[in-house]
């Protein structure tokens, strides 16, 4: 969108988000369950060991379910963390242990409580609303992940960014803005797609 102003870009992103989420909402339960299994089957595509911190998420609404994939990565030794909203601008990644109850947070999310250890992930499995073939993503509009990634970069950490989504969330093009951080990889029920590193 060459020459588009910030307001026009935000409006286009909002329209793409709404359309992609409507397609996602319409998926049948069988398709969702099969997709979660496919994601888990790709666990060996991610090099992890006992030193690797992996951030996932607890699915809400019609999000693709990453839990089988997280279980597979944990079985290979990875430490799993989940994002916890701590204020209107910030998420932190807290150590997830299956035998410890999660707390309900903002937007219907679930995460470990404040007693859980905060850890910086080396591999980030991220929810999204829409994505394109260049690795640009549209989130839910609050910017939590963009700010978290910026904080990690400032601290010298460069996590691998993996979007988890259904194929129906793919769009022709996402209008990227300077603050948007592109994905390194997207994983859908059709498999893994790598993007060229930028920046």
UniProtKB/TrEMBL annotation:
<comment type="similarity">
    <text>Belongs to the 5-formyltetrahydrofolate cyclo-ligase family.</text>
</comment>
<feature type="binding site">
    <location>
        <begin position="137"/>
        <end position="145"/>
    </location>
    <ligand>
        <name>ATP</name>
    </ligand>
</feature>
<dbReference type="InterPro" id="IPR037171">
    <property type="entry name" value="NagB/RpiA_transferase-like"/>
</dbReference>
<dbReference type="InterPro" id="IPR002698">
    <property type="entry name" value="FTHF_cligase"/>
</dbReference>
<dbReference type="GO" id="GO:0046872">
    <property type="term" value="F:metal ion binding"/>
</dbReference>
<keyword id="KW-0067">ATP-binding</keyword>
<dbReference type="Pfam" id="PF01812">
    <property type="entry name" value="5-FTHF_cyc-lig"/>
</dbReference>
<keyword id="KW-0460">Magnesium</keyword>
<dbReference type="InterPro" id="IPR024185">
    <property type="entry name" value="FTHF_cligase-like_sf"/>
</dbReference>
<keyword id="KW-0436">Ligase</keyword>
<keyword id="KW-0479">Metal-binding</keyword>
<dbReference type="GO" id="GO:0009396">
    <property type="term" value="P:folic acid-containing compound biosynthetic process"/>
</dbReference>
<feature type="binding site">
    <location>
        <begin position="13"/>
        <end position="17"/>
    </location>
    <ligand>
        <name>ATP</name>
    </ligand>
</feature>
<keyword id="KW-0547">Nucleotide-binding</keyword>
<dbReference type="GO" id="GO:0005524">
    <property type="term" value="F:ATP binding"/>
</dbReference>
<dbReference type="GO" id="GO:0035999">
    <property type="term" value="P:tetrahydrofolate interconversion"/>
</dbReference>
<feature type="binding site">
    <location>
        <position position="63"/>
    </location>
    <ligand>
        <name>substrate</name>
    </ligand>
</feature>
<dbReference type="GO" id="GO:0030272">
    <property type="term" value="F:5-formyltetrahydrofolate cyclo-ligase activity"/>
</dbReference>
<protein>
    <recommendedName>
        <fullName>5-formyltetrahydrofolate cyclo-ligase</fullName>
        <ecNumber>6.3.3.2</ecNumber>
    </recommendedName>
</protein>
